[in-house]
Write a structure and sequence with these properties.
Helix content is 35%, strand content 25%. Strands 5-4-1-8-9-10-11-12-13 form a nine-stranded mixed sheet, sandwiched between helices. The two termini are 24 Å apart. It comes from Paraburkholderia humisilvae.
């Protein structure tokens, strides 16, 4: 039976929130060196929270599960979710800090390097997942990543599979994984680096991505979507292999958060009933817009903006409001 929340396109996301501390400069400093930066910004981030914001702005009904500290960064987190109409299942942990991320952005290319300290969210466990089982059961799509402990991510995938909810696993950052997690994944969304770490196949082009995706299918994944940065994304399953080119939406300002935007957008499109290729295209359009803006969560576009890019590129609107 389809519940109301399923028909509305509910997405449940398990992951972390961090406050992004972003520094722009000409280059990274060497060890022991101090250099002058050109700009600084503070804002909401963390893969799970970024994906939640992306999915919510893309029209999904989003529930986000995490842990935060009883501190100023935790207050920023809750204000962010309230502003985006995201239903929060955030446990406040006394005596632990809310996570933070140092983000270096090359002011010329927009490329980034990131250090993440998960803080309270690093203590997420299978018990947190069990506490939101009803939310997961009422969703159409469940999403998780690897910034929180692996046992929590795996339990989330298991609970979603138990309730026949579509699972999307974003294996980021790249970590060693037991093979029993892969059969729990209807979709997996690694980038080139993560794909290589999971498969042992270096990914330098689309053909490499196909070979690596075949390895993931043999491990039990339903469909592999290898994101290829400025090139686009490859959707690869036992039944089809489709390369979706990236959308060029303007000058690249910052690439941090683009992968989160893709996964959040892909999940939102799936939750509304789009086929996997259309959902991949929707995610690419969202990511293409996000890289033209500064920040991670703040860079995520609205549904109207994504639909405009798709329409201008000759595609029917992927989602309706």
């Amino acid at each position: 039976m389809t519940t109301q929340s399923q028909s509305q396109g509910r997405v449940v996301i398990l992951g972390i929130y961090v406050t992004d501390l972003t520094f722009r400069a000409e280059r990274m400093p060497l060890i022991g060196e101090t250099i002058a930066g050109s700009a600084f910004a503070m804002g909401p981030g963390g893969k799970g929270s970024n994906q939640a914001v992306a999915a919510a702005r893309a029209g999904a009904d989003v529930v986000f599960c995490t842990r935060v500290g009883n501190d100023a960064f935790g207050q920023i987190a809750r204000a962010t979710w309230d502003a985006e109409c995201i239903t929060s299942r955030a446990t406040v942990v006394d005596g632990a800090s809310t996570g933070a991320a140092h983000i270096f952005v090359d002011e010329t290319t927009g490329m980034n390097a990131i250090i993440v300290a998960s803080g309270a969210a690093g203590t997420l466990s299978a018990a947190d997942v069990d506490a939101i089982e009803a939310d997961i059961a009422g969703a159409r799509v469940f999403v998780t990543q690897l910034e929180q402990p692996i046992p929590a991510a795996k339990r989330g995938l298991e609970v979603a599979r138990k309730h026949r909810v579509t699972t999307v696993f974003n294996p980021a950052p790249a970590l060693p994984l037991d093979d029993d997690i892969f059969p729990l994944c209807d979709y997996i969304t690694p980038n080139e680096t993560e794909t290589a770490a999971l498969t042992g196949v270096a990914v330098n082009n689309v053909d490499d991505a196909r070979r690596a995706a075949d390895v993931l299918l043999k491990k039990g994944v339903g469909t592999a979507i290898v994101t290829l940065g400025e090139a686009g994304a490859l959707l690869h399953s036992a039944h089809q292999s489709v390369f979706v080119p990236a959308f060029r939406c303007g000058r690249v300002v910052e690439t941090a958060g683009a992968g989160d935007g893709f996964t959040g957008g892909f999940a939102a499109a799936l939750a509304r009933g789009e086929d996997p290729v259309a959902a991949t295209r929707f995610g690419c359009a969202l990511a293409g817009i996000s890289v033209t803006r500064a920040g991670t969560a703040p860079s995520m576009p609205t549904l109207a903006e994504i639909n405009q890019v798709l329409s201008q590129s000759g595609f029917a609107h992927a989602l309706s409001a």
